[in-house]
Fold:
Amino acid sequence: MRTVTFRKGVHPRYHKSNTSGEAIEKVPTPNTLLLPLLQHLGAPSKLIKDKGESVSVGEAVCNVGGRISARVHSPVAGTVRRIIQKPLPGGRMADYMEITVDKDATESHSWEEQSVDLSKIDREAIISKVVEAGIVGMGGATFPTHVKYAPPSTQPIDTFVVNGAECEPYLTCDHRLMIERTAAIVGAVRLLHRAYDFKGIYFGVEENKPDALVAFQAALADFPELPAKVVPLEVKYPQGAEKMLIYAATGRVVPAGGLPLDIGVIVSNVATLNAVYEAFYLNKPLVDRVVTVSGDGIRNPKNLLVPLGTPFEHLVEAAGGVKDATAKVVVGGPMMGVAVPTLDYSVMKGTSGVLFLTQKDVPEETPCIKCGKCVRVCPMNLMPLKLAAYAKAGKFLEAKELGVADCFECGSCAFGCPAKIRIVAWVRYAKNYIRVKGI
Amino acid sequence: MSSPDTSPAAGGQPEQAKSEGPKEGFLLTSSPHTFSDSSTKKIMYLVVATLLPATVFSVTLFGTSVLLLYVIGVAVAMATEAVTKIVRKRSWHSALDGSAVITGLLLVMTLPPTVSPIAVAVGAFVAIFIGKEVFGGLGANIFNPALVGRAFLAAAYPVSMTTWKNPARLFGFLGTPVDATTSATPLAAAKFDHTFAPLLNMLIGQTGGSIGETSALLLALGGIVLLILGIIRWPIVVSFLGSVFVLGEIFHLANPAAYPSGLFEVLAGGMMLGAFYMATDMVTSPYTDKGGVIFGIGAGVLVIIIRLFGGYPEGVMYAILLMNAVTPIINRFVNSKTFGRRPDKAEAKQ
Structure:
């Protein structure tokens, strides 16, 4: 297969066969949901339901709290038991809504299929629907999708890229969606094409998912009017990073510090597109998602379709339980995911996976031997060893001048580093310092 | 498997959600949570492994006495690192990371076969102590430690450092008859007598010279393995060897009687050892490819200048040491260009 890719990057072990053959499985609704009310990047949402109020399936519990913000909906019918503060994965404190689930009412509810008049679809229709449904980027960054879909009027948009790379090891939730919801993903692309009239549409999928490539190819055959092309991507990390994917699929380069919009491109993850489809054709807000539960520490690795707010405990139960050997729990993929100290967290819009890893030893950090491996793998062409050294030395201005802000923390440098230096942690430290101190 | 929940809850309300897993909580570390198999130790010992053929060959050429020199060189290098680390109240385990082994091996390989064991011990000590530990240990040193040791010995033992012995004749049908027990190296012969040793003899180690640097062939093969494994990088190797060859050839063509050919320059002396194993030392050479090319060309020019116009017949050691000295400057000014950053910064903002 002829594949395209970006420059540099790394080849971690993929471990995808754990779950790539496991069909998406719907899990019985838990008795209690712990719904985080901050599930996106941007301004916190505005709470509109109070303690004691009842909620129905799909009812909004939070409204947008700013331009870059998103609504939150209740995935279940039930009663708001209380609003509590708890940390999100990574430690930031957020409000959580604890909902006592009315199981009968929740399980008897079904989403009515409805027809969509394509001729009435324009940008406003897309944006208002996406805002209404609370859709954010489900690849992990959780950037509110309506902002992505609303470029300034002066900015022409001619290209759409479907992100089905799924380059993080272990994760297969997007892979399963591409096979099982091919029509929905293509349907969402049709809606968007109707509104934006793209010149080119690229379905970027790493070639380790040949069934997904074939599925898209077959589904697109029905819509010859779409200027679409299925693009097999080389299996390489971070192939699914927006800038890398755009470069691989279209050859265009997003300017440093810029957005895909700046070069006329919109990128959406396949899970996001599935949500867009459901918003239009089922009138369903974003209230559930597929989560890959995997790793050597879980008994039965699975791809689970669960309501947002599902406690990790519940995922563990559905996947047969945690083995004693589990040493680390990671939310997301092993390259960019966030470790959590307990299972006291719940599924959010960006939770692509919960991994139970058994590697007990934290590799020992040794002195930098200046081999330059990090420089040779950095997809952003930065000099990670210098950024880490500057951060360690407190030379934040120097780190800034070398483009520390352009690092999107993919972890390729730290992955490849023979001295096991925690480059990403140091970069994050420098970024935070620069942001807070205004350097 | 269940333990009391320890997460903070609002208003002092205890959370009743239970947690599975170890009581002390799961490991909490920064991403990435997976690492490649590479390690400093692995890199160092792979380098050692590729040096072994040339090492063994040198023992067959110069006798078992050089085996003792290797043992002394490596042992003193490791011991010096361990003791220094203990005195500095650091973990002495770094002495086992393989870098001291390389330093010891490389140092002995650059010495004449008749050098005394005491000199080797002194050289290994200086290499590690002055060349590396004084700077803070592995990764912090500016100069190639083995070459620091050798430079010290060149000053401290000027006579024994320039006394050469002919290797054992392995292939009776090859090469010139060897009668004398001491002889000039091909470089000295070329420089002072304008007689040039046959290239084939230089390739397979049938000439006088330092213990480990005589067989250009085995060193090049080991180096090529390292290139294939990605442990050393082509920019330094190619630019160093290339510039020596091209410059040597230019002078040769200008005056064939006085100057040996470009190929001679590449095969002679410590060129192969230097190009594959010393100039490529990660710590003391630039970490970008562009920087590597600058380093390699700089070293190549210096080698030719020293060999053809300097006081010494051989210049690889000083060439590399001098380029080591400018490496921090190269690293400072040769930066990679961020993906998406245009040369004109104003343009990036439209």
